[in-house]
Design goal:
The chain is α/β, with parallel strands linked by helices and about 500 residues long. It has 14 helices and 23 strands. The protein has 2 domains: about 240 residues, Aldehyde Dehydrogenase, Chain A, domain 1 (3-Layer(aba) Sandwich), CATH 3.40.605.10; about 180 residues, Aldehyde Dehydrogenase, Chain A, domain 2, CATH 3.40.309.10. Helix content is about 35%, strand content about 20%. The strands form 7 sheets. Strands 14-17-18-13-12-20-21 form a 7-stranded mixed sheet, sandwiched between helices. A 5-stranded parallel sheet has the order 9-8-7-10-11, sandwiched between helices. The structure holds NADP nicotinamide-adenine-dinucleotide phosphate.
Length: about 500
């Protein structure tokens, strides 16, 4: 299966026009290290032009009734559906994830389009009794203005839809900086917006580095919200600057997610859940399982079955049929994983499988790493505390349910957790006590659906959520409106009889 891009060089999209970049940088396929295309490395002035266009266009867009704004999203959803296969192939080419997962990611975007289009007929506020006679009170959502969206490479289309669709249906204009590693999905999505008839200036894409374009967005006075997904280090710096400017900022960052396997669990099912959530997308998901907290009574059985199942994981170019695990995004990602393997060994965890880069003809010079299993890890080891972002999972034995919960909650992150058990009491205790934003029961740590809030507690975020109706809170302000029809001045809290 091969896909050839129709365009050789990507362009920025500003005020409805495709604008050439001055400087360019190459984009590579991580499965083969072959160059796919070039992408602009834009400067602050280009970003400024996009913000100016967005600011101007947003004034009219805010006045378009929301159900009409939603019509554009319906058209976007249908166009994405028509192009699902092409988008999925391109996604695998630029990001490496296997084609089946790429299809899943594109589907997530389609689902988000229809879900947020539906919000065009809701965007509910409240009416509420006023405390004074002949007075009416209500609250309503209003757009914030120009929204800055900064996205990572690991979900290059889904995350953009989680952010841009609610922003647009709510009446904002968007300036989007995609990750430099994966610009093709951005280019394709913007072409779809253009064809769907989105007025010019409402969706603008400026390609370029985080240090230049991203940083300029964060500092720009006319961008009133930053919605960021990426690493903790970058997120913290963005939040600090936004705090200084009193700019609204939504952060979705890393995870150190665990699957808990209790002594009464269906072990075969747990193995399937662990394989899918630890090695899917080669472990490069914010919700990837990188710890397995296992009751000591079933540790040996789980280890044995996991090792056996891992032998059947086929690794290679995700465009080929039957491949289950694709490449790592780039050399830096690979080097980071290798460092953590050494750290794990030095800390005394036992390496049961993998632990090495995969090279040679079978791997076409791509960036491949063998699915890796450590056992007898302690919960305070670095491999059990820090985000590795690769196909590496560490088994941590525990003696009780209470200890399992404590170990799960012992990390600085709080994105996703999972428990395998058939004890209904433990199910309810676990969903109450696991301190993550997402909890799964008898499933792995991945698999979020777009109509529920997505995000995490503690070091994973700052209290906001992507997707779900909750995403609208990021892109709207609440306005309280009081209408007094008594014909006289009535003072709240004072003229109450
Ligand atoms: P990253 O290095 O922080 O980059 C994310 C985005 O921020 C990229 O577009 C990057 O641009 C940009 N950026 C970099 N420096 C910046 C700066 N100083 N100012 C503004 N923007 C800047 O993260 P990543 O390595 O791409 O992504 C992996 C991380 O994302 C992992 O930690 C993962 O857990 C997290 N993630 C979280 C979620 C979630 O919802 N919680 C979902 C997916 C991924 P360039 O790269 O183009 O320079």
């Amino acid at each position: 299966m091969t896909t050839k891009l129709k365009t050789d060089v990507l362009k920025n999209f500003i005020n409805g026009e495709w604008v050439d970049g001055d400087a360019l940088t190459a984009v590579f396929n991580p499965a083969t290290r072959e160059k796919i295309t070039d992408v602009p490395l834009s400067d602050a002035e280009t970003l400024n032009n996009a913000v100016k266009a967005a600011k101007e266009a947003q004034k009219d867009w805010a006045l378009v009734p929301a159900p009409q704004r939603a019509e554009v999203l319906y058209r976007v959803g249908y166009l994405m559906k028509e192009r699902k296969e092409r988008l999925s192939e391109l996604l695998t080419m630029e990001n490496g994830k296997v084609i089946e997962e790429a299809r899943g990611e594109v589907q997530e975007g389609i689902d988000m389009a229809f879900y947020m289009a539906g919000e065009g007929r809701r965007l509910f506020g409240q009416t509420t009794p006023a405390e004074l006679k002949d007075k009416f009170a209500m609250s309503q959502r209003v757009p914030v203005g120009v929204v800055g969206i900064i996205t990572p490479w690991n979900f290059p289309i889904a995350i953009a839809t989680w952010k841009s669709f609610p922003a647009i249906v709510a009446g904002n204009a968007v300036v989007w900086k995609p990750a430099t590693e994966t610009p093709i999905m951005a280019y394709e999505l913007v072409k779809i917006f253009e064809e769907a008839g989105l007025p010019k200036g409402i969706m603008n894409v400026v390609f370029g580095s985080g240090g230049t374009v991203g940083d300029s967005m964060v500092h720009h006075d006319d961008i009133r919200v930053i919605s960021f997904t990426g690493s903790n280090d970058t997120g913290r710096n963005i939040a600090a600057e936004c705090g200084r400017q009193l700019k609204k900022v939504s952060l979705e960052m890393g995870g150190k997610n665990a699957v808990i396997v209790m002594e009464d669990a269906d072990i075969d099912l747990a193995v399937e859940g662990i394989l899918w959530s630890a090695f899917g997308t080669s472990g490069q998901r914010c919700t990837a399982c990188s710890r397995v907290i296992v009751h000591e009574k079933v540790k040996d059985a789980l280890e044995e079955k996991l090792l056996e199942s891992m032998k059947h994981l086929t690794i290679g170019n995700g465009l080929k049929d039957g491949i289950k695990v694709g490449p790592i995004i780039n050399q830096a990602g690979l080097d980071k994983i290798k460092r953590y393997i050494e750290i794990g060994k030095e800390e005394g965890a036992k390496l049961l499988a993998g632990g090495e880069e995969l090279t040679g003809n079978d791997y076409n010079d791509g960036y491949y790493f063998a699915p890796t299993l450590f056992t007898d890890a302690a919960s305070n080891m670095r491999i059990a505390q820090e985000e590795i972002f690769g196909p590496v999972v560490s088994l941590i034995p525990v003696q009780s349910f209470e200890e399992a919960i404590e170990v799960n909650n012992s990390v600085t992150y709080g994105l996703s957790s999972s428990i395998f058990t058939n004890d209904v009491n433990r199910v309810f205790q676990a969903q109450r006590d696991l301190d993550t934003g997402i909890v799964y029961v008898n499933a792995g740590t991945t698999g979020a659906e777009i109509h529920l809030p997505f995000g995490g507690t503690k070091g994973t975020g700052n209290g906001h959520r992507d997707s779900g109706v909750q995403a609208l809170d990021v892109f709207t302000e609440w306005k309280a409106v009081y209408v007094d029809y008594s014909g006289k001045l009535q003072r709240a809290q004072i003229d109450v009889e």
